[in-house]
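Q: What residues go here?
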């Protein structure tokens, strides 16, 4: 299984306080714990040619991570279309935190998925496991806590998820569907809410466990492309 971790990589370059948490970028932090778990991991960032997602890179990617926030509009539509087509073919996609507002996630959802409530007030977040039998929740207790995170609140303008794995409670009172699965074409999509850039969330062992589980869940073995269009009769009637 080949993994690519994509990050817009803007905050970490421009803000000292963010760089202190992720010195080599959020993508490198995620790639590091996945590599240590034995996976074949590459990273790609917006400042690379074709945003780092060339045909060659995408053809070699079984599961793609997506972290974006301030630069969604700078991702070329041609790249979004290529990622979309790879998801249809069976590439897994794990959309993180503010990636909810990315072009690719909204295109796959078919809804204005950028719409939700938010507040940067370092609230405590409790992530409750809704489906303890789900592969993505294996090894996680009935809940885990992130002492400080950005708050997201419902309503979140996504379609009804295929499966709801986590719901978050925030100390300010909001709740949010934090772990949602979707299937589009042959591709499996997992949206996972935590991961605000000014919080050390991707260093958290429970978050890392969820993302490792999500990689396994999102992987679909390669298969022949579907055939579409005109076709001769399958059964010959004399
Ligand atoms: Zn955020």
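A:
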């Amino acid at each position: 299984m080949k993994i690519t971790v994509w990050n817009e990589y803007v905050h970490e370059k421009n803000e000292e306080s963010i760089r202190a948490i992720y010195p080599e970028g959020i993508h490198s932090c995620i790639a590091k714990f996945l590599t240590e778990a034995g996976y074949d991991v590459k990273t790609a960032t917006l400042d690379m040619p074709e945003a780092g997602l060339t045909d060659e890179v995408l053809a070699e990617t079984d599961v793609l991570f997506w972290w974006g926030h301030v630069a969604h509009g700078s991702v070329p539509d041609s790249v979004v279309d290529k990622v979309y087509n790879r998801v249809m073919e069976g590439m897994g996609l794990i959309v993180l935190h503010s990636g909810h507002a990315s072009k690719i996630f909204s295109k796959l959802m078919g809804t204005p998925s950028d719409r939700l409530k938010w507040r940067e007030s370092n609230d405590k977040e409790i992530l409750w496991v809704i489906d303890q039998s789900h592969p993505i929740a294996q090894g996680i207790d009935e809940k885990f806590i992130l002492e400080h995170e950005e708050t997201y609140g419902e309503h979140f303008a996504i379609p009804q998820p295929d499966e709801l794995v986590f719901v978050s409670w925030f100390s300010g009172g909001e709740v949010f569907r934090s772990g949602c699965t979707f299937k589009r074409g042959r591709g499996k999509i997992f949206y996972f809410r935590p991961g605000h850039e000014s919080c050390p969330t991707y260093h958290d062992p429970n978050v890392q466990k969820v993302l490792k589980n999500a990689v396994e869940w999102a992987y679909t073995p390669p298969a022949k492309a579907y055939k579409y269009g005109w076709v001769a009769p399958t059964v010959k009637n004399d």
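A: Context that may help when evaluating the design: Residues 2-218 form a domain with the Rossmann fold fold (CATH 3.40.50.880). The first strand starts at residue 2 and ends at 7.
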